Amino acid sequence: MSQERTQAHAKSMSDGVDCARREIEARPALGNKVFSAEKLLLARMMESLGNPPLELVLWDGQAIASAGKPPLARVLIRDRGALLKLIANPELGFGEMYTAERIEVQGNLVDCLEAIYRAFPRSGNGQIAQKLLAPFNGPLRNTQPRARRNIHHHYDIGNDFYKLWLDRDMVYTCAYFPDAAMGLEEAQTAKLDYVCRKLRLAPGETVLETGCGWGALALHMAKHYGATVKAYNISKEQIAYARERALAEGMEGRVEFIEDDYRNVGGEFDAFVSVGMLEHVGIEQYQDLGAVIDRSLKGAGRGLIHSIGRDRPSPMTPWIERNIFPGARPPSLSQMMQIFEPFGFSVLDVENLRLHYAKTLEHWLGRYEANIERVAQMFDPAFVRAWRLYLAGSLAAFRSGDMQLFQVSFNRSGENRIPWTRQYLYSS
Amino acid sequence: MSQERTQAHAKSMSDGVDCARREIEARPALGNKVFSAEKLLLARMMESLGNPPLELVLWDGQAIASAGKPPLARVLIRDRGALLKLIANPELGFGEMYTAERIEVQGNLVDCLEAIYRAFPRSGNGQIAQKLLAPFNGPLRNTQPRARRNIHHHYDIGNDFYKLWLDRDMVYTCAYFPDAAMGLEEAQTAKLDYVCRKLRLAPGETVLETGCGWGALALHMAKHYGATVKAYNISKEQIAYARERALAEGMEGRVEFIEDDYRNVGGEFDAFVSVGMLEHVGIEQYQDLGAVIDRSLKGAGRGLIHSIGRDRPSPMTPWIERNIFPGARPPSLSQMMQIFEPFGFSVLDVENLRLHYAKTLEHWLGRYEANIERVAQMFDPAFVRAWRLYLAGSLAAFRSGDMQLFQVSFNRSGENRIPWTRQYLYSS
User: Fold this and answer.
1) pLDDT tens digits, residue range B308-350?
2) Does domain A144-426 match CATH 3.40.50.150?
3) B355: which chain A residues are within 8 Å (Cβ-Cβ)?
4) Between A and B, how many CB-CB pairs are < 8 A?
5) Which residues of B touch A132 (CB under 8 A)?
6) How many angstroms away from the CA of A27 is the closest CA of chain B?
7) If you measure CA to CA, which chain B residue comes closest to A292?
8) Which of A70, A119, A280, B165 could form a disulfide with B368 if both were Cys (CB 3.0 to 4.6 A apart)?
9) Which are the contacts of B153, defined by CB distance < 8 A and separation ≥ 6?
10) Does domain A3-132 fall into CATH 3.30.1050?
11) Which of A321, A386, A286, A396 is nearest to A137 (CA)?
12) Where are the domains of chain A?
């Protein structure tokens, strides 16, 4: 769901909400009774969301269901305040009230969220298209200090927490499942390999990695491809973990983990790779990133950027941006090209791995739920519910096509030492 | 080479040319003597082109070579008029004067042109990037009548001419060579197959093809994949040829060849395909094309667009646009996304087959040269040389990275019946 949609909705709803509030304030004695104005507003909200196949149950037991379709799940709205937040701004309100246990979902949370994503008409005529392509709410200026705060918010909440539901290598990006039935550990290793093969890494080569997470890819490139890697990250906890791992595995001479911003990178490399950082860069900084790659990549160097993306330019849902990923903005492909085109890089290959991210998230969510009691010992109930909603919502977004996963391979313009076909990626 | 470059060059040169002209007019008695001002201007032109490794020989026998590099070819400039045209506007002047036999190339024409493409600094600092991304010379409005004139100019010059150097199926687009040593006929068949496999065509499905050339792909889809095809084209001669072929091969019930503009398409289809038409559409018409695809593709439909492209937005060289392909403009990927993003199509796969187009052009140019006497019986000497220059220049452009070839596969947003991986494309 997009911010534009929320805004349009909020505008059309705000008069109605004010009206309901006035009705409530005028008749305080009525207490918990549901007003007909409230039911009308809820029905209008459902309509504006494309009538997802859900049954909404209010605190007094009254139920409202979308006509025609059997409901996939039941959404319990526990009090008037939750209802008003929801109808005033469904995208923000649902997350906030779910986190606060004032909205509950009976049935499968992922199916419920996927139904919401799918109900909204995304394709079709130019009018909707035009509306969704309208300019965003001002630019996203991720300066270095702000980027640091954004990353700290999400990635520095404790490595022990992430260990509960990530794979053993702590790879917190889309895995690659050559076979859909493959386990998560194996699929993350397959992804690291797939990236190295797309980069055509050769022993003795140097690699620059920006946004290295807990270091799995950098270590994999050094251990299995004989590369020497400089890996950058601005998350304190991730860098500390990665350094410990390099030391424990005897890789400290081959992989250098540097706690610094991608904009401060120095040196020249045979390959550039960035997996899961671009989402945090912000479109406005893409030309800076392109300049970093341009000054870092040798003439015959190869590059790969792996990022969550969108089918068209659109911001994150406001609840995710406020609570989970401040300053994040997954790009559409036309936006992503703003990294490459100003510097004349040549895009060789774009692969959309959307369903592999859905599969990855199935594993993460499964492990998260299996470890929910351990999570509850570490964090308060609101955190536990917020992270369930984030994981379930992300899974629903990739399943429904609201989110994409792009791997873009590139070279400098005119470099002819490139693979003749992609056959080599698919022979063992 | 770009139009901006030419313009910047022309501006810096025009004073010099005027000066040389005045010098010549003031001393008519000097006749064929080469003036020092002319040599200076020629040296400055070479510098502005990045000093390609060529030796320029003037009509009086004087030679000018780029310092440092051994020359790859020798360019003979036969008279003062040719020299002045060249230094005033090298991109237009070279083609015009080569065609008129007033400029000759000794050595390999393709190598000479590739050296020119490669010499110009394309990558590097933001200044050059900014300059090259400057807005173009006004929009390209390919209305339906204008599109018809443009296509008639190139494609209606006689099927017998194209038969001399295309493959037996008359496929006038980039072939796909699973093995670089494969012959042209086999590689064109492999390309038709590759496109069908990317589209995941199943028996009984319907296909819309816009810009069908001489009909090879439409007939291949019907014969080998059991599809029913509506194929559009505005070239009279191509459509006539394709209809004859359909009749001769008993395919007239399965493939309908329609002489009409892509904007007039009707009906709904399981697949949309367009191979080598987009170059002629013009960026300004991409949203119209997107709307055509949007109204033509069924919910689970698949699409593929195959087109020449660029690493960044830039127009055709002016000589090509004036003499070979009026109204043509190969897009960068960000421009190409203007077809898909406004309608929320989901891009699944982008493959850059640049070197396959270079290989295809090697075959075409080889066959053209082998049949040059037959061509000379059909057309005047200027045509013979212009087409040699066009084929050799295109080969040089793909070899040097000035041109790309993109195959873009797409679906409607949120469609999950997509291939799990790309493995299936590479197993026989």
Assistant:
1) 999 999 878 889 888 888 888 999 999 999 999 999 999 999 9
2) yes
3) 416, 418, 420
4) 163
5) 344
6) 46
7) B125
8) B165
9) B326
10) yes
11) A321
12) 3-132, 144-426
- Would you call B341 and A352 a contact, using CB atoms and an 8 Å cutoff? no
CA-to-CA dists, residue B40 to B35, B52, B83, angstroms: 9, 16, 12
Residue found by looking up tokens 């008409």 in the block: A121
Q: Cβ contact (<8 Å) for A422 and B418?
A: no
Within 10 angstroms of residue B237's Cβ, the number of other Cβ atoms is 16
> Chain centroid to CA A6: how far?
19
Band (pLDDT 50/70/90 cuts) for residue A55 is very high
In angstroms, the CA B98 to CA B382 distance is 9
For residue A423, list chain B residues with Cβ-Cβ distance below 8 A.
178, 426
Which residues from chain A sit within 8 angstroms of residue B175, using beta carbons? none
Q: What is the mean pLDDT of chain A?
A: 89
**Chain B: nearest CA to A92, how far in angstroms?**
23
How far is B413 from chain A, CA to nearest CA, in Å? 6
Interface touch B124/A345, C-beta < 8 Å: no
Taking residues A391-400, what's their average pLDDT? 97
The pLDDT assigned to B137 comes to 47
Interface contact flag, B334 A352, Cβ < 8 Å: no
Q: How far is A371 from chain B (nearest CA, A)?
A: 29
Q: Residues B155-189: pLDDT tens digits?
A: 888 899 999 999 999 999 999 999 999 999 999 99
- Global pTM reads 0.91
String of b and e for B107-143 (b: at least 16 CB within 10 Å)? Answer: eebbbbbbbbbbbbebbeeeebbeebbeeeeeebebe
